[in-house]
Write a structure and sequence with these properties.
This protein has three helices and no strands. The chain is an all-alpha fold. The longest helix is centred in the middle third of the chain and has 37 residues, at 26-62.
Length: 122
Amino acid sequence: MRWLALVLVALIAALQYPMWLGKGGWLQVRELDRQLAVQREGNAKLRARNEALDADVRDLKTGFDAIEERARSELGMVKQDEVFFQLQQVAEQSREDPATIRPAEGSAPRPIRPAARPAEKR
């Protein structure tokens, strides 16, 4: 009777091995589920990026507002009758007390002035 119990335990262990550790076993399925979740998350991020790029392309094809915005921000362009002012940043320590602002040695303070306009076409 004791031998029969040992044989049955060995048979059960032999049947359980492929279910837990074999190809397609629980451990492998669990790992594949984890990889699938990571891939789905990556796909969702890429899908959002693609939708944003698609919206940009549609906006550039149909409207002039997006083209103007890009020209202003990326190329620094201004309209015909606009005046462009360029402000210089002040150092962190001198922001607190304006009286402590000093120009660099050998230079005079620079006034704020409009940038040169391109020559008009006639």
